[in-house]
Design brief:
Elements (H helix, E strand, L loop, with lengths): L5 E4 L11 H9 L4 E8 L5 E3 L20 H4 L3 E2 L10 E2 L3 H11 L2 E6 L7 H12 L7 E5 L2 H10 L5 E5 L6 H8 L3 E5 L5 H9 L3 E5 L4 H10 L3 E4 L2 H4 L22
Helix pairs in contact: 4-5
GO molecular function, one term: phosphoric diester hydrolase activity
GO biological process, one term: lipid metabolic process
Pfam families: GDPD
Length: 258
């Protein structure tokens, strides 16, 4: 397996401020060993951990994310979800995110999330530059953007890659071979059992986003899904996926897993 059966979605998105160091801590509090996060660029090309093109959904500010400098974004806080006991937290840089993950001993699914399609290759390149200082971290790189994954394949082919789709297209097999991906990540609401079987028949793992109901998680486990992304790790601890958790020991997908 590339990752654990349970992967914290943007940390633990319904428990703590998403894509923040608090969110990472909240996920770990519920025994999560892998965490998904989104990488995009500031206006001065600093890779940060943030999901939206605009600020207003999760902060008390307005504006386009990629029009803010890193200095400006450091003054903005991500708000916690309703009912959370976690306080607001700052937007982390990719360096801060990786440093904390290394300290806490978690693996990362880094989704390249360019704020504009034209920034896909640049986002990938600058992310990979930062990753050079963290060779010991277990990382899987994913994206909806084929150009971003192609850039990773050309520059740093040893990192495992996963292709994201909202719905599995007819050309998925050709695309997967061209990009050399090891997994396909698909939308929970549009996934069908036969698609999981098709992916596995081609030697690909299948991860599903975003699963927050234990009954659905159990069904997906029996379908043969490799793992799920969840906003609610507290609800998933008794599911079968919680028993298929590990930290990969190397970047090479052909290496054995301890």
């Amino acid at each position: 397996m590339l990752m654990s059966g349970l992967i914290g979605h943007r940390g633990a998105r319904q428990l703590a401020p998403e894509n923040t160091l608090s969110g990472m801590s909240a996920a770990i509090d519920h025994q999560i060993e892998w965490i998904e996060a989104d990488v995009m660029l500031t206006s001065d090309h600093v890779p940060i951990i943030f999901h939206d093109d605009h600020l207003q959904r999760v902060t008390r500010h307005k504006g386009t994310t990629d029009q803010q400098t890193w200095a400006q974004l450091q003054a903005i806080q991500v708000q916690p979800p309703y009912g959370s006991h976690w306080p607001a937290d700052t937007i982390p840089s990719l360096v801060q995110w990786l440093s904390t993950a290394r300290t806490l001993g978690v693996g990362l699914n880094l989704e390249i999330k360019p704020s504009q399609p034209k920034l896909a290759k640049l986002t990938a390149r600058l992310m990979l530059e930062v990753l050079k200082d963290f060779p010991d971290l277990p990382i899987v790189i994913s994206s909806f953007n084929g150009a971003a994954l192609d850039t990773c394949l050309n520059i740093a082919p040893t990192y495992p890659r996963a292709r994201l789709w909202d719905q599995l297209p007819t050309h998925w097999a050709d695309d997967a071979r061209r990009l050399g991906v090891s997994a396909i990540n698909l939308n929970n609401f549009k996934l069908r059992r036969h698609q999981v079987e098709q992916l596995k028949s081609q030697g690909l793992e299948c991860y599903v986003y975003t699963v927050n109901r234990p009954a659905r998680a159990q069904k997906l486990y029996h379908w043969g899904v490799s793992g799920i992304f969840t906003d609610r790790p507290d609800l998933m601890r008794e599911t079968a996926f919680s028993r298929s958790s590990h930290i990969r020991q190397a970047l090479d997908v052909n290496d054995s897993i301890e």
